Structure to design on (176 residues):
């Protein structure tokens, strides 16, 4: 089931998410719904706070190569346990900040530990786009957006643009 994605500014996007206490069928279904929402958007990652739920749950799939098999991932209670000193810069966007992109500098590699959909502990080291994406999504769990890495002026301009977009969308819905 596709879920509505919150648009910045929304106070729920700035809140630290709660740990997932235990894995129920409800949480597994939520992960599946989040993946469906992410693919439909289209995006490569989505965090539960972006759909208005304060749970430490992210989904992602950074496979971009034409014809390559998708690699959908659901991570419950993910945490970065190691980061490289080497940095990389990627132009980031966000489903909660549509049509807005900016260069963000992050560690080039990160090791992440999480609980998989069966409740088993998992750990993997990510590099490249995968590393950027997992850090971006974990930031959402901590109430941080990619625009928080930008200058106050750029952040303010983007926020104004999103307020305007939200007003336009609200007017469109009223007409529908």
């Amino acid at each position: 089931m596709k879920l509505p994605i919150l648009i910045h500014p929304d106070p729920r996007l700035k809140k630290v998410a709660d740990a997932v206490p235990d894995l129920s069928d409800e949480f597994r279904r939520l992960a599946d719904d989040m993946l469906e929402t992410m693919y439909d958007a289209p995006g490569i990652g989505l965090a539960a706070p972006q759909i208005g739920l304060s749970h430490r749950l992210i989904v992602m799939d950074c496979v971009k190569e034409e014809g390559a098999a998708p690699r959908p991932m659901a991570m419950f209670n993910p945490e970065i346990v190691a980061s490289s000193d080497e940095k990389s810069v990627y132009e980031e966007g966000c489903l909660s900040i549509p049509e807005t992109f900016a260069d963000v500098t992050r560690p080039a590699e990160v090791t992440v530990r999480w609980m998989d959909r069966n409740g088993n502990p998992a750990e993997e080291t990510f590099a490249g786009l995968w590393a950027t994406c997992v850090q971006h999504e974990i930031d959402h769990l901590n109430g941080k957006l990619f625009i928080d890495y930008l200058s106050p002026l750029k952040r303010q301009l983007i926020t104004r643009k999103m307020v305007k977009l939200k007003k336009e969308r609200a007017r469109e819905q009223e007409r529908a």
Remarks:
- The first helix runs from residue 25 to 40.
